[in-house]
């Protein structure tokens, strides 16, 4: 038993990478609340110009991430996931450090794109855990790992706000760089990977077409990747307008900023509690069952958010959103793992990250456009409709998920 654990120390890797993804989650999210303020400091811009440049700066990382992730994933399958963790952590640390030194918005835009080039820490952590965890434990392991980045991203905006208040926005970038460097050092010295390089002919074809040729059910893989994009699109479409919706429900009276922060944090709290338990349930009773239930539950909790008149009711529904996220994101990753050959573990998680990045981009555009044209409540209704369409797509294209 001890020898087996030493040869495949997945439990220790899970603990270390949980903490690393927690730190990475803080690093990724703590600069976002004041990114537009930082843009405003870099020039004498009008209000509309600040909004435009902030949108470009925000989207640059996701666009580049969507492009380069499959390339890094293919390299990880040949060189190992641990070295990709180290590459991502120190690369992004350097980009963050340089962001604290910029003097104009174009330098910031270029460094945000550079951050996208070095992306992939969380996806490679997921791939490493997925590849080394026994299949019967993969649902619980991936569900647990997701709570690391989720809880980090939950705490990040609060920590970032405090740091910016105590020091300055520029100093916060330096602190963020230090956090990512810590994650890189922990990955280098405490993560163990017994990696066997994938032969080049086994990993031939790094494009999506070549990748799908390695799977017994490529249609399922396409469906799952699209599901990642749609679920992330739905989540992200809410993010830009949730504080404005809270302000409207509170009639612009009271501690709007505080309440909006609490409302925004509620899904993360319930996600931390729900994801490992739902992952363990999927391991025993079938991940497809958890996925289908998660979609139906998500539709039921998103739709009424567009009709609420009470901030308390909105808070209760947002708390339930975290449960649906805990059913959807880890379960999609678990199904990708269970239906992927060892030769494609890293690259499939990198493609999954690409589709997630596309969801982030399209979701921001959709949420802002719908809110501007029709009102905040339409964003929630459209998100519920989108998830329902995604559910019907899954139901009719992949009957295997019903079993």
Summarize the structure.
By secondary structure, the chain is mainly α. It has 17 helices and no strands. The protein has two domains: 1-192, MFS general substrate transporter like domains (Growth Hormone, Chain: A, Up-down Bundle); 201-403, Growth Hormone, Chain: A (Up-down Bundle), CATH 1.20.1250.20.
What does this structure look like?
The protein has 403 residues and is mainly alpha-helical. It has 2 domains: 192 residues, MFS general substrate transporter like domains (Growth Hormone, Chain: A, Up-down Bundle), CATH 1.20.1250; 203 residues, Up-down Bundle (Growth Hormone, Chain: A), CATH 1.20.1250.20. The protein is 80% helix and 0% strand. It has 17 helices and no strands. Helix 2 runs antiparallel to helix 7, helix 5 packs antiparallel against helix 7 and helix 11 runs antiparallel to helix 17. The N terminus is likely disordered. Keywords: Cell membrane, Membrane, Transmembrane, Transmembrane helix, Transport. InterPro entries: MFS (IPR011701), MFS_dom (IPR020846), MFS_trans_sf (IPR036259), Tet-R_TetA/multi-R_MdtG-like (IPR001958). One of its GO terms (molecular function) is transmembrane transporter activity.
Set out the fold topology.
Elements (H helix, E strand, L loop, with lengths): L1 H6 L2 H20 L5 H7 L5 H33 L1 H19 L5 H13 L3 H12 L5 H29 L2 H22 L17 H5 L5 H21 L3 H8 L6 H30 L1 H16 L8 H28 L6 H30 L1 H22 L6
